[in-house]
Amino acid sequence: xxxxxxxxxxxxxxxxxxxxxxxxxxxxxxxxxxxxxxxxxxxxxxxxxxxxxxxxxxxxxxxxxxxxxxxxxxxxxxxxxxxxxxxxxxxxxxxxxxxxxxxxxxxxxxxxxxxxxxxxxxxxxxxxxxxxxxxxxxxxxxxxxxxxxxxxxxxxxxxxxxxxxxxxxxxxxxxxxxxxxxxxxxxxxxxxxxxxxxxxxxxxxxxxxxxxxxxxxxxxxxxxxxxxxxxxxxxxxxxxxxxxxxxxxxxxxxxxxxxxxxxxxxxxxxxxxxxxxxxxxxxxxxxxxxxxxxxxxxxxxxxxxxxxxxxxxxxxxxxxxxxxxxxxxxxxxxxxxxxxxxxxxxxxxxxxxxxxxxxxxxxxxxxxxxxxxxxxxxxxxxxxxxxxxxxxxxxxxxxxxxxxxxxxxxxxxxxxxxxxxxxxxxxxxxxxxxxxxxxxxxxxxxxxxxxxxxxxxxxxxxxxxxxxxxxxxxxxxxxxxxxxxxxxxxxxxxxxxxxxxxxxxxxxxxxxxxxxxxxxxxxxxxxxxxxxxxxxxxxxxxxxxxxxxxxxx
Length: 553
Prior knowledge:
six-stranded antiparallel sheet; alpha+beta; Herpes Virus-1; 10 helices
């Protein structure tokens, strides 16, 4: 389920004293003090300020990704690294969510909602270290995990053969009947069912070169492991290969270690929720293997198994400032002499009267009452009004009819510099069962606003990058991909403005071309299935002047 649905209500249950802890060199996180072997539990803060645990699978994914970020610390220090972790790779239900490590916030890509996260340590002998989770039944009929400290407390009471556990010390007015497995509200008598679940243990705390956790132990007989190879779920260079000896596995540049068993490719396509399938799984989907190349991913998450054309590493073209707006208007408009009894929809004055921008323009040849007609659509406006509209835009040499939105020339936007990577995945999207999928990863760093932005010279933020988006790998999906590449190069995908969800100003936001950020579901409305999405996004691209005609140029 999505992180926002993990649970709500109740009081915070602390896990002991907290201290500052450097998370792989890329941020400070709070941890609970514990003795002996420890496990790591990543938690998120709900609306009431209470800390809810991510699943063990998600926590392990975050820990692995932190190890990779730690290995890339030098690159990050020079501005070449990224410090975000996509949660959808561990749990498809969390596809919209990213953890931004420097700020320790969970960011929802489609809504911009941010929550704090933290990293807690607990003794390996306690419930999370044993893979035991206590949950209560919520109002929707689903199951919500108790806060970690409460799970530990309930497990201790259960193994101690207590019949009743009082949650008063955690700020709850509840009693838990461990015999009938129900939670009772002391004030109202209302009962909820509870359950004790067995899951994978939370990941152990790694202790450097001498680490003996389940991920590192298999290598012990073959000598030390390089730091760059430790704790990585697979090698970034390519698929795992079967070899005859442990030493050859370690030295092979394509070796990828999986601490848990992988699904055999021969039994069928890789399931939707598994992003860690071997590259040869592409054959089961009927996708062309000629488009596969194994190169290193430039994002901060683990490299994906299959890449389409490799990372594009596309930097968008920047609009050339046209110094003479008058010449642009002359290029696309024809002056007419007749006086029409209609309003100019730019200044709302009669076309037979003076332009509302009279005296506010530096036009050399346009008279105040001059009107003109656009070539293709035929709509008529004051020439001074069109010139003023152009000067208030990107000044990129294009005009857009304010009436029908027809674009003249090549429209460009104000998207900051960044990177667009494209990958081909063997997993299908809901609603497209017989094809693979395309993953687009956008990455834009923080920066300084240019003259085309709202506040030139002022910093802008870029929250939640890299952002992961998905398309079906069919004919129309590939067409949308090619048009999105054109839109990216024309700086039309993002812009700098005010977030409609968080209210933050001077930040990178989407620019009216909708993307699907959920891969395995449509919980938020930003995923699949959505039978109308491809047609809708083609219309949005056309509104920006990006059509199939652009692909023929």
